[in-house]
From TrEMBL:
This is RHO1 GDP-GTP exchange protein 2. It comes from Steccherinum ochraceum. One of its GO terms (molecular function) is guanyl-nucleotide exchange factor activity. Residues 308-492, 533-717 form the DH domain. SMART domains: CNH, PH, RhoGEF.
Length: 1284
């Protein structure tokens, strides 16, 4: 108001003096307070006489013209009759007498001692939360209290409307702000100032003839004059320090006077710009316009009803012309400028989508209306001045309106929401809309008004046509057309409302609507009750489908996209994809299938409205289409639920994210698991609704035969998913046990429970007795036994904070692999278990009845327990006994254990990594009397001694031969022909042999001496190349060589052997060289020597490095450098776990080092394996892999590491350490691990297919020689059959 006065001051030459301006400012301040107070008085009415108005205008003066609209709409006789000097007192009295001001004072008044806030809150529950300072509170109260009725304007009845008098009677203040925000409007789309006049008729935009739809949003605004002070120390007794405090008042002034004195700030703030008042066209104007164009004699000859009828028709034409003009304004002021804007107002990539979303089919609506207007104008031109009929035009137009209006009005809420979002985020668009609003063609109306224009026009059409219908004589030919047109357009209204319901997906104000809300009363009154119930159920099914699709969309909007786009990531990026796959699985397939089904249901609903004949075919087709998607999704739900719970327990960021999503408007306070579980009960809901539809379907209807087919399809789908759900629940149960089974530090065993093929076969409680300790016989320990398909775990359950954990003690009951356990005794008689301390006797004591308790039950309380005994092979082997509390439980455990062992054997046979291929089971035998296998030479081919080594090789002629070293020499023959084996070297104590194919040399370590034989001398390729000399080259200096190895260093082939020299190990490096002529055999030259002052056990070439297994660990030598480095590097680590690991590495014997990947190596000791990085430091949190046996030799065949001991071969995956296979045997030894064959490094992943791992074991079941003291030996090769 003060800004207006300043502009007024600048435009008035005679007010340019400063003193005059200040006096004018004070006067405007007082007048504004008075006018605002007079507006809110309930006693004001618009019956002020013209004399009072004119006198008031004369008092105000010519400079007060901008105050006249306020003074005209609110008059006070006391004020007008008073002298100017008495105006201040009259104004203050008027404020004091105002009910609104009294109510404000009552609100701000401090509570008396007997007035408790709790009691006052219940005295008037409706007003307890009403605050008049908020415009939204006033709007709710206004819509709730204003009376609606059918009012006439221009001879046209408008239902569910109210007059200006009704409006002012209900609330007298701030109405213009509600009107500006399009909360209600004038029925003729006028925009003039609200007055206390019964000739003005208004309506709320959400009110229909039979349905009242709540608005999507309330008007916004705050009235500072009615708000409280922001100061916490402000009260009614003492003045506040804030200058703008509503309670601030001069000394001795009343609260009302203080309110009147504090008006220098704007009274209302609102988001909608001020609309310039303009005069609306009344029905008299329409009649005058039509009567002006009619001859007087004809006008006098027409009856009054016909004159009224023609006036209404003329009004219809005029309204449609204005309507077309408004739709043209939409295109000219908004659509075209948005497309032609340079620079663009909206990003070019989003412009067309924005226009399609906001303006939708408004141009199609204009085209349909233009055709109606053209038809009306043509008929007016043909039949002027009296138009005979218009009903046929509107009846024909209703068929076009059904499509265009339904589509447009259905998208209208989304359009308004999109406009508001763009206004909030795009400053350029907000400025563009404001500039368009100030255009003369816009009439100061905003974009929101123009977007709502088709809705208001369609809403008024039936009332206008009804007015024409009522003005027609009963025998008029247009009566029937008008009647049908009214019904058709009302049907268009209902269809449009239905489309709005469909596009809103049943959310918001449409959530409470049912089928009857979209059907006219005439249709409902003529419909059978059973059909009404059937249609209601069909509507409920479609509405439920909309809510279901909306919930599936919410999964993507609320969870999937935010999780994938979050920065920093909520779920670690390396497992985000797997987490989303396991939690949300194939929800996108379900969403696509149900969107398609919903689209078809909506089509049938719109086309058949209000009667939907059948939806069975659509449902049946959809169930067949989404069957596979549900078969995949439903069994995954237990996994999804577990992943959500597990992630929330471990990830605080994810927990906060889920809680935040619960507060999302579309979440309805429901959590993440509700949305993930949503598809499961939906199938059951289909079944219930279809059964209800079937009950209400007539016998002659097609659904009587088709609905049972759909029900059978749904039941079959449930059966197909039931097995998958059971398997998923068991998988989740295994995962829970995976997190609940705990080990002591340094004793963890990877049970491979996260394997997708893992199965839990049986669980139960049992009892165990400690093997040691005082009074061990009576100390019973309760254990929990879990029988998986790979391990049997015996653990002690512990409860803490409501969570159960299962502690596994390696010393008491290490997890038992099913490959290594054998049931021993499940038939032993039961034992007595004392259950009372008084009953427990020390060994050797006798029970004395004289010292027994007077309670006989306490001394005789015993129970029987039933022992179950199994034997385990391996490093932790021995007898394990547990006790069950009943014979039935023991029998069940025996049955389950036999099934588990049998299942394990079948599974291992089907997925085993290696097949044992026998190379020779008839040639080699050793005596049991001599550990070195010496025997009588009477039968040379029988007494070979113990097999110690082998070397497969290929001759230049392509023959695949196999050399086998024994205690009595070296045998060579064809690989798959045992009868071809012949002894070619008569040597003693052969421990290692190898064929150097590139140089044609056969290396043999016999009796701790190293020799090199010419290949042609022992295996001649032909008689022509046979050499007569069989004398070997002796490569070692003395007889103390323990092992040798051949490999590549700096692109040279070298041979390294180790000689024992006291407590040190001397390594000599030799390089084979060819002779000067082809007939001269290759020789060796010394390369260099180096010494390690500890005991060593083996050596291997790993890439460009030499790895030596010593008593200190693994010594690494790079090329020809004499510097050695020792791994693993554990000294830099801290903590008890690393201290124990370092001690264990010192006490255990190293066996080999193998390449895992580009960043890791696996160090194999005789008891465990350890992953290290490229620097030799432990990786994977220093967790070790415990071998099941005590390994003697380690071999490598990618992707497996093979560990040999006397009883079995343990095969593990080198990447994970999981146990892949166990090959049992007797006296098993590795005689060839592939290292050095063809000079390939056996530690490079992917280069192991030519490696051959060979071994030997005793063959008690062979048909070979069975003489006294001899044991047949089975030479075999591990042939890979599964590669992962």
């Amino acid at each position: 108001m003060l800004g207006v006065s300043y502009l007024h001051y600048r435009n008035q030459p005679r007010l340019r003096h400063l003193e005059v301006y200040r006096r004018r400012q004070r006067q405007l301040k007082d007048d504004f307070v008075l006018c605002l107070a007079l507006q809110v008085e309930a006693s004001l009415r618009s019956d002020t006489s013209e004399h009072e108005i004119s006198s008031s205008q004369s008092e105000v003066g010519p400079d007060d013209a901008f105050l006249q609209p306020l003074l005209v709409s609110s008059r006070s006789e006391a004020y007008l009759d008073s002298e100017p000097s008495q105006r201040s007192q009259v104004k203050h009295r008027s404020l004091l007498d105002s009910p609104i001001v009294q109510m404000i004072e009552e609100i701000k008044r401090p509570l008396a001692e007997d007035e408790s806030p709790a009691r006052l809150a219940y005295e008037d529950e409706e007003d307890s939360y009403f605050f008049p300072a908020f415009l939204s509170h006033i709007s709710v109260r206004l819509q709730s209290d204003v009376p609606r009725d059918t009012h006439l304007k221009g001879s046209i009845p408008y239902p569910e409307t109210f007059t200006g008098k009704d409006l002012v009677d209900t609330i007298q203040a701030y109405l213009s702000h509600l009107q500006l925000q399009l909360f209600f409007c004038e029925v003729e789309w006028g925009s003039h100032q609200i007055e206390d006049d019964i000739s003005d008729v208004y309506m709320f935009l959400g009110d229909q003839d039979d349905v009242r739809v709540e608005p999507q949003g309330l008007p916004s605004g705050v009235m500072p004059m009615l708000t409280g002070c922001y100061s916490t120390c402000c009260n009614d007794e003492l003045p506040c320090y804030a200058y703008s405090c509503p309670k601030r008042k001069p000394v001795g002034a009343s609260p009302t006077q203080a309110l009147a004195s504090n008006t220098d700030r704007p009274a209302v703030r609102h988001s909608t710009s001020q609309i310039v008042p303009s005069r609306s066209i009344s029905s008299a104007d329409y009649q005058a316009d039509w009567a002006d164009n009619v001859p007087l004699d004809l006008l006098q000859a027409l009856p009054a009803a016909e004159i009224n009828r023609q006036s209404i028709i003329h009004k219809i034409i005029t309204q449609n012309q204005q309507y077309i003009q408004d739709l043209n304004t939409v295109e000219s002021l908004f659509i075209v400028p948005l497309r032609q804007a340079d620079p663009p107002i909206i990003r070019p990539s989003e412009l067309e989508i924005f226009i399609k979303t906001v303006f939708s089919t408004i141009l199609d609506v204009r085209a349909c209306t233009k055709r109606v207007l053209d038809a009306l104008v043509a008929r007016q031109r043909e039949q002027a001045p009296v138009i005979n009929a218009i009903g046929d035009i509107f009846l024909e137009a209703a068929t076009q309106f059904r499509v265009t209006y339904s589509h447009y009005l259905g998208h209208l809420p989304a359009a308004e929401k999109r406009v508001q979002e763009e206004m909030d985020s795009n400053v350029m668009f907000r400025v563009f809309v404001q500039q368009a609003t100030r255009h003369p063609d816009a009439r100061r109306l905003e974009l929101k008004h123009f977007l709502s224009r088709p809705s208001i026009h369609l809403q008024k059409s039936p009332a206008v046509l009804e007015a024409v219908y009522k003005a027609c004589p009963k025998d008029h030919p247009d009566v029937e057309f008008l009647k049908e047109a009214v019904l058709a357009i009302r049907q268009v209204q209902n269809t449009a409302l239905l489309c709005s319901f469909q596009f809103a997906m049943g959310k918001g104000s449409f959530a409470a609507l049912d089928w009857t809300s979209f059907v006219a009363e005439e249709v409902l009154s003529n419909m059978p009750r059973r059909e009404m119930k059937r249609q209601n159920i069909i509507f409920e099914l479609i509405k439920g489908e909309m809510e279901y699709v909306k919930d599936l969309e919410s999964i993507e909007i609320m969870y999937v996209l935010p999780l994938r786009e979050a920065m920093p990531p909520i779920v670690p990026s390396e497992r985000l994809a797997q987490f989303c796959s396991e939690v949300f699985h194939n929800y996108a397939e379900l969403l696509d299938a149900h969107r398609d089904m919903l689209r078809k249901l909506h089509h049938f609903q719109r086309e058949g409205h209000p009667i939907v004949h059948s939806i069975t075919a659509t449902l049946y087709d959809a169930i067949l289409n989404f069957r596979d998607a549900y078969v995949k999704y439903i069994p995954n739900y237990p996994i999804a639920e577990y992943r959500i719970d597990d992630e929330m327990a471990k990830n605080p960021a994810f927990k906060a994210f889920v809680e935040q999503c619960t507060r999302h408007p579309d979440a309805n306070r429901l959590d993440m698991k509700h949305f993930v579980n949503r598809p499961i009960p939906r199938l059951l809901r289909y079944e219930l609704l279809l059964k209800s539809i079937l009950d209400e379907t007539p016998d002659n209807h097609d659904d009587k035969t088709t609905i049972p087919l759909v029900l059978e399809a749904i039941k079959a789908l449930g059966w197909d998913t039931e097995r998958g759900v059971f398997a998923a629940k068991q998988k989740v149960e295994i995962w829970r046990y995976h997190s609940q089974i705990v080990f002591k530090d340094g004793e963890a065993v990877d049970l491979d429970l996260l394997n997708t093929h893992r199965a839990l076969l049986h669980t139960g409680k049992a009892l165990r007795q400690p093997e040691t300790g005082f009074d061990a016989w009576n100390n019973w320990i309760e254990v929990f036994v879990l029988l998986f398909d790979n391990y049997m775990v015996i653990a002690r359950p512990k409860e803490k904070d409501g969570e159960t954990t299962y502690l596994v003690d390696k010393r008491a009951s290490n997890p038992l692999p099913l490959d290594l356990i054998t049931p021993v005794n499940f038939t032993e008689p039961p034992r007595q278990r004392a259950t009372n301390l008084r009953n427990r006797l020390r060994p050797g004591e006798r029970h004395d009845p004289s010292t027994s308790s007077p309670d006989p039950e306490a001394d005789t309380r015993v129970s029987l327990v039933y022992p179950c005994t199994v034997h385990r092979d391996g490093r932790f082997g021995g007898i394990y006994t547990m006790f069950t509390e009943s014979a039935q439980a023991r029998t069940e455990w025996k049955q389950k254990l036999d099934e588990a062992i049998g299942l394990r054997r079948v599974v291992q046979d089907s997925v085993k990594a290696f097949e044992v291929e026998t190379l020779n089971a008839e040639t080699f035998a050793a005596t049991t009397a001599d550990p070195y296998g010496y025997s009588s030479p009477t039968r040379d081919h029988v007494h070979t001694g113990e097999v110690t080594c082998s070397a497969p090789f290929v001759t230049p002629t392509g023959r695949n031969l196999l050399a086998i070293g024994c205690a009595e020499g070296v045998w060579i023959g064809f690989r798959h022909d045992p009868t071809s084996m012949r002894r070619v070297l008569h040597l003693k104590l052969v421990t290692q042999c190898m064929m150097l194919e590139e140089f044609g040399l056969f290396l043999v370590l016999a009796d701790k001496s190293l020799f090199a034989y010419d290949r042609e001398a022992i295996v001649p390729s032909s008689f022509r190349h046979a050499r007569t000399s069989r004398a070997p080259q002796k490569l070692s200096r003395n007889r103390d060589v323990h092992f040798f190895s051949v490999g590549k260093l700096e692109q040279r082939t070298v041979l390294i052997y180790m000689e024992k020299k006291g407590a040190s190990s001397v390594f000599r490096v030799l390089e084979p060289i060819f002779g000067r002529v082809a007939s001269e055999p290759p020789t060796f030259r010394e390369y260099w020597d180096f010494t390690i002052p500890v005991e060593t056990y083996g050596m291997a070439f790993v890439n460009t490095r030499v790895v030596i297994c010593s008593a200190k660990g693994f010594e690494i030598m790079v090329a020809a450098s004499p510097k050695l480095s020792n791994i693993p590097v554990i000294t830099a680590r801290e903590g008890p776990q690393f201290e124990r690991l370092a001690k264990r590495c010192e006490t255990c014997r190293p066996l080999g080092m193998f390449h895992v990947n580009e960043e890791e190596f696996l160090l194999c000791y005789n008891e465990f394996g350890l992953y290290v990085d490229r620097h030799g430091e432990p990786s994977r949190s220093a967790q070790v892999i415990e071998w099941e046996g005590t390994a003697v030799h380690a071999a490598w065949h990618f992707p497996y590491v093979l560990l040999f001991n006397a009883l079995f071969i343990e095969i593990r995956h080198i990447e994970t350490g999981h146990l892949a296979q166990i090959i049992p045997g007797n006296d098993i030894r590795c005689i060839c691990d592939g290292r050095g064959s063809r000079l390939r490094s056996p530690t490079t992943p992917g280069d192991s297919q030519e490696l051959r791992v060979q071994g030997v074991m005793n063959a008690p079941n062979a048909s070979a020689i069975r003489t006294m003291g001899n044991v047949a030996q089975n030479v075999f090769e591990l042939f890979p059959i599964v590669s992962t």
